[in-house]
Design brief:
Length: 424
């Protein structure tokens, strides 16, 4: 195990990197590095716009400093890379941020240093993509001069119960000795314990299938919801009845976005196709889930037409833009698919989300959020995200915004069945 005096650099201070830097910073020297200077400034003021870490928790990390200057991480011995790994417009893995982070770390490497990756990748990416970058930029030899590890992130944004220290951590290393060191490093902060995988490739594969499995399960429930809607059967009622069996899995239908479930399966399918296998089931689930935004919009339009609401020019309020409830994370939110489809029908769409950052919504999606929607003016209201404030009794209860005869679509089953007009 590394002495507690060895300094760690955490590269990327988002939803994954910041909690990691804070926990390590409570017990050993840590430098949190991010190229976003505004992010560094807010963290130095003990403010976290992701709301994953409180000011009190930041204050407890006595050994943690923040920087946007790469020279400040040159004296570190352990580098943990936690940058995002998104997909591009063609749903192919985009490893540019991972490569750039590796190029930043490479020149800093010294004999004996360890680089640990937490970013989600396809099996083999660490050793096939990242290691060559580290060798090229450092001039050092892999597994002789420097070493690598992989410990996939398991963060769940907005979840205050399942956090870094309470979720078992999978670890791995490029040699048996390094694997043991990486495992001991994480064991020093993760109360739930660690699981040492047989290899880096095994750890990479374990991460990517976690969310692929969830994606497929949700795709099944989404397809069932489409079938039951055609049969005029309440999907939630069916799921509650089926849930009385001990081994029925409690998945619910909905829009599948975010930084993991809507992205990770494409990393696995990309690698599968690269080795000559076409993954039919995984891609079928992705197609179905990616099409749910259009399905929701079409259901809304049909319901409005049945009430003789003129769709072209109608006003619809979308309640919720973040990818999940009670969380400010806008990454890969599929609510934008509903908005885009409704606008194609000529609907005037307003979007309200008290959790979302207005500037980020405008920059990422070209959407101007409505801070205080006007009551009683909308032809339709869609509850897209289950923020607590949107439910019955909440200060922004959905029914108050619709005019007489409007259509309320409760996508997240926040209200009793008889209080909404449509449910997924």
């Amino acid at each position: 195990m590394q002495p507690a005096t060895l300094k760690i650099a955490v590269i990327g201070l988002g939803y994954v990197g910041l909690p990691l830097a804070v926990e390590f910073g409570k017990i050993r020297p840590v430098v949190g590095f991010d190229i976003n200077e505004a992010r560094i400034d807010e963290l130095r003021r003990q403010r976290d716009s992701t709301r994953e870490v409180t000011p009190e928790e930041l204050a407890e990390a006595y050994h943690l400093t923040f920087t946007s200057q790469s020279a400040d991480i040159a004296d570190c011995c352990i580098y943990i890379i936690t940058v995002p790994t998104p997909i591009d417009a063609h749903k192919r893995p985009d490893l540019q941020l991972l490569i750039k982070a590796s190029e930043t770390v490479g020149p800093m490497l010294k004999p004996g240093d360890i680089v640990i990756y937490e970013s989600t990748v396809y099996p083999g990416a660490t050793e096939e993509v990242c290691v060559p970058v580290l060798e090229r930029t450092s001039g050092l030899t892999f597994n002789e001069d420097f070493f690598t590890g992989y410990s996939p992130e398991r963060m769940n944004p907005g979840d205050k119960q399942h956090r870094l220290t309470t979720i078992q951590k999978v670890t791995s290393g490029s040699t048996p000795e390094i694997a043991a060191q990486v495992d001991a490093l994480y064991a020093s902060i993760v109360k739930a314990g660690t699981y040492l995988a047989e290899s880096i490739r095994v750890a990479e594969a374990a991460k990517v299938i976690e969310n692929t499995q969830r994606d497929l399960n949700i795709a099944l429930i989404n397809e069932l919801a489409i079938i039951f809607n055609r049969m005029d059967i309440d999907t939630e009622a069916v799921l509650k009845a089926a849930g009385t069996k001990w081994n029925f899995l409690p998945f619910r239908p909905g829009l599948v976005g975010g930084h993991c479930i809507g992205v990770d399966p494409y990393y696995l399918t990309h690698k599968a196709e690269a080795i000559g296998y076409h993954p039919e089931i995984i891609l079928a689930g992705r197609r179905l889930n990616d099409g749910m935004g259009a399905y929701v919009a079409s259901q809304m339009v049909k319901a409005m037409m049945k009430r003789r609401i003129h769709v072209n020019g109608a006003r619809v309020l979308i309640m919720g833009l973040t990818f999940k409830e009670n969380c400010p994370d806008l990454r890969n939110t599929r609510v934008v698919d509903v908005i885009s489809e409704l606008r194609d029908y000529g609907v005037v769409v307003d979007v309200h989300d008290p959790w979302a950052n207005a500037l980020e919504a405008r920059q990422a999606y070209g959407i101007d959020l409505v801070e205080e929607p006007e009551a009683g003016v909308y032809d339709g209201v869609i509850l897209t995200v289950a923020h607590a404030a949107f439910g019955e009794g909440g200060k922004a209860c959905a029914r108050r915004f619709g005019r007489e005869g409007h259509v309320l679509y409760d996508l997240k089953h926040m209200m009793a069945a008889d209080k909404s007009d449509l449910r997924l």
